[in-house]
Amino acid sequence: MHAEAIQSRAVEVDRRVRDLAPETAAEIVFEPSGNNGVTWRRNAKSATLTLHDAGRLELTLHPAGEVPDVLEILVDDADAVDMIAVPVANHLR
What we know:
By secondary structure, this protein is an alpha+beta fold. The chain contains two helices and five strands, in the order αβββββα.
């Protein structure tokens, strides 16, 4: 997966996050995060998806003022969009 692919996949994830959390969809800000990542923000919470070497995706959930949770996701998983979107949507609620 290349940087362009992460951006394209992230757009799919963003749509799914908004579908899963319609009550907060208007408050979620979605933006690129460097060359190999994207970030979703709502209030003091954020979630960052980063593409690392060998196609490894890392999702970091940043709660307000707490230690972030880090999840690793394999790109070849068929359910990668939901594997990313569900925790992001739940975290940003």
